[in-house]
Amino acid sequence: MANFNNYQFHYSLSGNKNQQTILFLHGFTGNSQDFSRVIPLLSKSYCCLAVDLPGHGRTTVNGDETCYNMSNTAQALIQLLDDLQIDKCLLLGYSMGGRLALYMTLHFPERFEKVVLESASPGLKTEKERSHRLQADLQLAQKLENSNIKDFLLNWYDRPLFKSLKKSPNFDKLIETRLANNPLELAKSLRNMGIGNQPSLWGKLAQNQIPLLLLAGEYDDKFTTINTEIASLCPTASLEIVPKAGHNIHFENIDKFGSVVREFYN
Predict the structure, then answer these.
(1) Contact indicator for 245, 95 with CB cutoff of 8 Å
(2) Mean of per-residue pLDDT scores for the chain
(3) d(CA 38, CA 91)
(4) What value does the mean pLDDT take over residues 163-188?
(5) How many other CB atoms are found less than 10 A from the CB of residue 24?
(6) What are the Cα distances from residue 162, in Å, to 41, 207, 215, 264?
(7) Alpha-carbon torsion 220, 222, 225, 228, what sign?
């Protein structure tokens, strides 16, 4: 645990402590355990730091709901790196964690050497889109607060985005790990870190100097399109479409995911 200001971060630190650190940021409804199959593929060559983001896992927040938003969470993670005396590291974010990773890359470029964005986006482009999505996020958060968490999760993963994930033989195990989350905390995350409340990062992509590896699953048409556009706007970005995977690539095709990440970081 690392305790400062309004955050008490729960995290795991594993692997080769003498080597460069990779900071792992999970997606919505996940936690630091989401990368438990990825870390062994990288831990011989890297020190792996996986964090429970605010609203998830065993991290606790003592301040108001603004502590759950992207800018404050990013600043708190930089403080965590300072606390651990990690001046510069590698970064890997999935989905919500990928949106946060992109924000951190663009706002704290001196802290990151190379960044992997898995099924991530720079947010929504227009105020109208953000306003519409925020209303949907607020309604979903309210539903989350008033429903059984297992029912909510099954409903969440029933979306077309996760069609291939649901076919995985380990899908039930994935749901089981997510049941440990507190629905009231998840609702705070959704209201504040959801894509409806996120500032658009599209306009900043052209200025980015940090090497980015964009990963999208071959079955994930939506994020393949988004990441193709990111790659066209950002000169340091390269895009890899990962076969036999949808939105959650590191869960659906772990071997390919591990090899492309290792190759990029090396």
Answers:
(1) no
(2) 96
(3) 14
(4) 94
(5) 26
(6) 24, 32, 16, 26
(7) negative
Closest C-alpha to 1, from 113, 160, 117, 10: 10
Split at pLDDT 50, 70, 90, the class of 1 is low
User: DSSP class of residue 108?
Assistant: -
Do residues 191 and 137 touch, judged by C-beta distance below 8 A?
A: yes
Q: Take residue 77 and report the two structure tokens written for it.
A: 């993670």
Mean pLDDT of the region 46-50? 98
State the CB neighbour count (10 A cutoff) for residue 1.
9
The owner of tokens 């594993």 is 14
As a whole number of angstroms, the distance between CA 203 and CA 209 comes to: 14
Q: Are strands 60-61 and 112-118 parallel, antiparallel or unpaired?
A: unpaired
CA 42 to chain centre: 18
Q: Which of 77, 80, 88, 120 is nearest to 212 (CA)?
A: 120
Six-digit token string for 222: 């939506």
Residues found in the chain: 266
The pTM assigned to this predicted structure is 0.97
Q: Pick the closest to residue 97 from 109, 115, 113 (CA basis).
A: 115
* Bridge pairing between strands 2-4 and 7-9: antiparallel
Neighbours of 225 (CB within 10 A): 11
Q: What is the pLDDT of residue 2?
A: 57
SS3 of 125, please?
Answer: coil
Instruction: Dihedral sign for Cα 172, 245, 190, 151, please.
Output: negative
Structure tokens at 207: 């200025």
Tell me the pLDDT band of 147, cut-offs 50, 70 and 90.
Answer: confident
Q: Which residues of 242-261 are buried (b: 16+ CB within 10 A; e: fewer)?
A: beebbbbbbbbbeebbbebb
